[in-house]
Design brief:
Elements: H1 7-11, H2 16-28, E1 30-36, E2 44-49, E3 58-63, H3 80-84, E4 89-93, H4 103-120, E5 126-132, H5 134-143, E6 156-162, H6 177-180, H7 184-189, H8 196-203, E7 207-213, H9 218-233, E8 238-243, H10 250-253, H11 261-270
Parallel strand pairs: 3-4, 3-5, 5-6, 6-7, 7-8
Antiparallel strand pairs: 1-2, 2-4
Helix pairs in contact: 4-5
């Protein structure tokens, strides 16, 4: 029997918190919607800019979760509200989810989005990444990129990885792979915990926070703990956050609140607390 990973929640669509938070951010910030970063219909960005921007603002890229098959950038602006109020630009990235998009394509798309964002916003004072669940794995893959094949080398100052999966081999035996259709080879090459040496070469100066919900499943908590230990043993700048009174979903949704622990942590990382 294939194991189930939170499928019933995601298949019901985005939550009211996500939708309301995104609508509020779009009304309070300068929102540039559906900015292309490639030629595909899914290769679009939503950019949230403070009302009175300066020329050297920090920028946070957010990669949404959803088991690589649900959710989208359309409800990913919920984290932008408290950040834009502190003078931070937030970019929610759209990417082709399964079954239309496979894992290699998703990783390629988010890497390309980072390159495009830096080309469009070269004046920013610092680049930061944030991802939840599947998005945390994608952020970790961005940090582990060999940028020699690209025309730019991002200087990523900080990354917040929330309740992610960093070893995809166990996913092969779950219902999720019915949509992803990963082989073991694909799972291995897209598992951040197998790419720590490359991350150290590409992102050694990045401050990394691996966060997990207190009430996350045992599988998710184990993945976060083991990835943190792998990064720590490699001498990277990394910390582990066990967020109290949260589950796999509320740990990210509560970022709509400027006083929430992870919101404050992200603002401190950026220097805007």
């Amino acid at each position: 029997m294939k194991r189930v990973l939170y499928n019933s929640f995601y298949s019901s669509g985005p939550t009211l918190v996500m939708c309301d938070g995104t609508e509020r951010a779009r009304s309070e910030a300068q929102a540039l919607l559906n900015v292309p970063y490639g030629e595909g219909d899914d290769e679009k960005l939503d950019v949230y800019i403070p009302s009175n921007p300066s020329l050297d603002l920090p920028l946070v890229i957010y990669l949404h979760g959803g088991l690589w098959q649900f959710l989208s950038k359309e409800e990913s602006g919920f984290i932008a509200g408290p950040l834009v109020q502190k003078g931070v630009v937030v970019v929610a990235v759209g990417y082709q989810t399964a079954p239309k998009g496979d894992m290699d394509l998703m990783v390629s798309r988010v890497r390309r989005s980072v390159v495009s964002i830096l080309q469009q916003y070269s004046h920013i004072s610092g680049l930061y990444l944030c991802g939840h669940s599947a998005g945390a794995q994608l952020v970790a893959m961005v940090l582990s990129t060999d940028w020699t094949e690209y025309c730019i080398t991002p200087q990523i100052r900080g990354a917040l990885l929330v309740s992610g999966m960093y070893d995809l081999v166990p996913v092969l035996s779950t219902h999720v792979n019915e949509f992803l259709k990963m082989t073991e080879e694909v799972a291995v090459r897209n598992s951040p915990n197998r790419l720590v040496a490359q991350l150290k070469r590409s992102s050694s100066d990045c401050d990394i926070v691996v966060a997990m919900a207190q009430n996350d499943s045992a599988d998710f908590r184990k993945q976060s703990e083991e990835y943190f230990k792998a990064l720590q043993c490699s001498g990277l700048k990394v910390s582990l956050e066990d967020v109290p009174d949260t589950d796999h979903f509320s740990v990210m949704e509560r970022c709509v609140d400027g006083d929430y622990h992870l919101t404050q942590l992200l603002l401190r990382m950026i220097g805007r607390d």
